[in-house]
Amino acid sequence: MTTPLRSGQPFLVTLGAMLSLLPATSAQVPFDISPFASLYAPLGNMFVAGNCGGSPCGYANGGSAAPLGQTVALQKTIALGGHLTTWPTGRRWGIEATFAYAPSGVTMACRMGGCNGGHAVTASARVVVPVIGATSARSFYLGAGVGLVGLGGIAYAGVTGTTSISPTVGAGLELKVASARSVRIEAEDYMFRPPFRLASCDASWGVCRVLPPNNWPQQFQHTVILSVGWVFRDGGSRNTTAEARDTTTAQQTRPSYSLRAGLTVPTGSFHSNANGDGYNAAWQGMALVEFKLPRTAFGVRLDGSYGENSGNDKLQADNSVNTHTPSDIKAKILGANADLTFAFNSSSRAKAYVLAGVGMYNFRTVANYITASSLSSKMSFAWNGGAGLSYSIGGVSLVLEARYFNISSPPFQASDIRYIPIFLGVRFGAG
What we know:
Layout: H1 9-19, E1 31-43, E2 47-48, E3 51-52, E4 55-56, E5 71-72, E6 77-86, E7 94-102, E8 119-132, E9 138-152, E10 159-160, E11 163-178, E12 181-192, E13 197-198, E14 221-233, H2 240-245, H3 247-252, E15 256-267, H4 268-271, E16 282-292, E17 298-310, H5 313-323, E18 327-343, E19 350-369, E20 373-393, E21 396-407, E22 417-429
Antiparallel strand pairs: 1-6, 1-14, 2-5, 3-4, 6-7, 7-8, 8-9, 9-11, 10-13, 11-12, 12-14, 15-16, 15-22, 16-17, 17-18, 18-19, 19-20, 20-21, 21-22
């Protein structure tokens, strides 16, 4: 069951939950601080279109009718946040406050640009219990408590009851990399049903169009936050004795860096749709940093890339016919990813690895005309997977890598953007 809160209360509740834990963070009680990046992943739909008197339910106040089966859902995106954990019983169990912000709107059609934009703020106060390896280099823990989800932005114009209090559960893995630092991987589930109420509405607004008098069936929500964070134990304070014991571990976690260039090969409808319109293969560049987890074959990698793909002859010709002027259409792809890597054990200089992860991409289509230009741009969620081969030469390694990318379809694109980048590059440092 969820409880509605008045406007402004989400921030007061969040602040109160965190401040209530501060007395436990004195010098006598261990505490951890863990900033993180995460995938904000709503499961299922907020609304589904029902049957309104034998006809498909439509949008309120003059909106066009929506076909049966159309849904309204929260958008998947990248979230940033942090954990503050106190351990009053010597790490047998802890009390934790969490906070995250995600630029998540809703998936619904707009009569005017931007009506589906929004954001989500989540917070929780919970108890965490290490169930395996509480004092070892690898520990597994469970958590449960009370959560808060606040939805806002233009998508909720004219709507009240956008904040909910709900139960939350989670589980995670912590991998120690130094005396006072660890990598933390976690999944946390918020369970809620926003108590939306209609205050006013316009045909160009968002969620208000599916509230009464239309009465689209509202669904119970599960939103999972999949996070990777860096844990600073006792706020990151130094313990020189422990640091001396962990010198080898710290050396094993030195980052490696890599610069790469390669070819992006479009696939599916990005290569050619049913009409033959699509994009050609083209160049792409990438820079990355990777951290190897000590005494494991796993690593965490952060990368950024940019590339451009020109429209094929059919697309250029069709666009020139439609606009009555010659044009040059390009797709520009800029994005960042967080990936988990796994390296296969080998005693030779050549080492194979696999990787998979998620990211956020800005996909733009640019059409340059003789007298003007047009631009369509959208941030979208993406996932990827791939494999590579590295060959060490002295203090550097040559790397050949191929990945498969799927970028969720922007509103101006009929389907997901899929392509295979093939990179050749050089890596410096550990790894």
